[in-house]
Amino acid sequence: MRIPAASLVLLASAAPLVLGHGQVHSVVTSSGTYQAADAYAAVDPTSPLRKLNTYGPAADFTGPDITCGPGGNTPVANLAEVESGSLVTFNWLDWTSVHPGGDIPWGENVIRLETNVYSVHIPAGLKNGEYLLRHEILGLHVASTVMGAQFYPNCLQIQVVNGGDVALPEGIPLPGSYDPYDPGILVQLWAISPTNSNYTAPGDWANEAYGVGGTPLPTQAPPPSTPSPTATPSSAPPAKPTSTPSSAPISSAPIPSATVASVAQYGQVGSM
């Protein structure tokens, strides 16, 4: 499956780093509010949110679970009708903060300050049709170890109506675009400071020309001035091996069609 570079939504760029679990509780669209199914309950036939089978992350983010989350590659029967140019709002339950930091505007701040919601725009004039709106939150609290980054993807099946002739460009493959040694995936959080606050989100960047955007990042007050303790040398993230044993490429079986409403136009798939 390919995810457009100019994605419908890209939380990894708008709200890049979140500490904690990242499953969606509900989604509000122009046609109504839809609840996510409990991971350990039966599929809700009225929900357009694809059901996950765990509250944990996609542990192997190089495999097929990175597309729509563990269990989320199975289509559901319903679609959420969404007006072209409208907002889609994702809701989470209460967000537990262990340590929000203060060096850069982390995604956690967006979620907590916006009362556990995040809104995104569907591009105005987007062609009518079936799309897959992909949500993703990335936790980096254990990302200093290889494969330690925690991705929480989830997919919403939508039907865009009252659109125009705007088409999404070709996207990036998922799985296939996240490397365990990418600088935004294998990262030491202690290395991020007021003087070194750059972070490169994995994957590709959202293109605002296609209507991507939503809840703005909050403005943070600068941290109080305190004497800096003497730093002790720390090891850098593990280096990528110069050679790896040959192995067969990871492949994923085609996603089966849903009984009532399949999302077959994979060229229209959106990412968040």
What is the global morphology? Answer: globular
Mean pLDDT value = 72
How many extended strands?
Answer: 9
Order of helices and strands: EHEEHEEHEEEE
Main location: secreted
Family: Belongs to the polysaccharide monooxygenase AA9 family.
Subcellular location: Secreted
Signal peptide: 1-20
Short structural description:
The protein has 272 residues and is mainly beta.
Give a topology summary.
Layout: E1 2-4, H1 11-14, E2 26-29, E3 32-35, H2 65-68, E4 80-83, E5 87-91, H3 107-113, E6 117-121, E7 129-139, E8 150-161, E9 171-173
Parallel strand pairs: 4-8
Antiparallel strand pairs: 1-9, 2-3, 2-5, 5-6, 7-8
GO molecular function, one term: metal ion binding
Biased composition (Low complexity): 241-254
Family: Belongs to the polysaccharide monooxygenase AA9 family.
